[in-house]
Amino acid sequence: MAVIEAIATTxxxxxxxxxxxxxxxxxxxxxxxxxSLRSTELVNAMRxxxxxxxxxxSNYCNYNMRGSTSSATGYAQTGAAYIQTSDGMxxxxxxxxxxxxxxxxxxxxxxxxxxxxxxxxxxxxxLHTDRRVQIGSGLWDNTAAITxxxxxxxxxxxxxxxxxxxxxxxxx
Amino acid sequence: xxxxxxxxxxxxxxxxxxxxxxxxxxxxxxxxxxxxxxxDTTGTHLWHDTYLRINSTTDATFNSYTxxxxxxxxxxxxxxxxxxxxxxxxxxNGDADAGLFNPLIFWIPNYAGTVGNKQILSSNQVIGxxxxxxxWRMLELAALHAPTTPxxxxxxxxxxxxxxxxxxxxxxxxxxxxxxA
Lengths: 172, 181
Hints:
The complex is a heterodimer. Chain A has no helices and 14 strands.
C-alpha cells in the first residue's frame, strides 16, 4: 500500500448543494482533504461548513485565526452545529475561474480513544481587494471513528468545477 | 520511489516522558511529522508545552524560533533566541476534557544536509475544553536549529516541559520521509 492514497475525488460537473465522502475506511492513520472551492452565492467569500458522521447536533467547536487584507482577528465558538472555516471559499462575485484553496488534516481519525480535531487552512479572494487567509481548528466532541464527511457552503451551492480529494495517510 | 515513506509510527501503550525517533536515515529530502498528543500534567490552562530536541542537543544557543499565536481570540507574535529544545507546540493536559488530544504537524526541509542550518515549520492547535474558549490556543511557528557544526538530523525527541511530565497512553506520532522525483 502506498503511504498516501487518494480515497476518493469529487469533481463537480454541475452545481451541487453538498459534497459527501462516505464509507471512509479505518485502514489509514490520518486523513487529508484538499479542495478547490467556489459558491454560486453572489458574495466575495464565505464559510465552508463541515459535518462528521451525519451529526448535526451542537457538538462542534470552531477556532480560527484570520488575516483579512491587512488585519488579523481571532474567532472561537463552542456548541456549534458544524465545523466551519472563516471565509474559506469564494462566492460568485469574484472573477469566473477563481476558486479558493482549502486543506484539512484529521490526525488519528479512526482512534476511538480520541475526539476528532481537524486542522484547517484556507485562502480566498487572493486576486480581489477583499482577501482572506485563515488557519483554523475544528473539534467534533465525539470519539467515534470518522466514516462520513459532509461539506456544505454557507450559502448557495458549490459551483461547477469545485474539486475535492480525500487522501489517506498510512503509518506502516 | 514513493514520494512519502513511513520512517516510524509510535502510539504509546503507557505514559512516557518522550517520543523518540532515532537512527533517521539520510535518504530522503525532507521530514514530515504528524502527532496527536496529550500530557498528564495538571493545570487550569488545560495545556502544556511540547518541545522538540534535535540530535540529542542540549546546547541552548543552537535553537531559536518565531511564532504567531492565537491566544483565546487575540493574535499575538513572539520570538525566542535560545532554548535547549525548541518549544514546538502545546498538548492538552490531564485537566482537559477526556479524549482531547491535539494535533501537531511540522516539516523539516533538507534535514540531511551538512551545510547550513535546519528550518522547522510547525502548526499546532489546542482545545482542552469544549465548553469554554478561555484557554484555547493555536500556534504557527518557524524555528531554526543552528549547531556550531551543521549536521544531518538523525534523531528527533518530542518531550514535555520537564522530566516528570508524561505523554499519556494513545499519544501518537508518525514520522514520514519525503522524496522528490
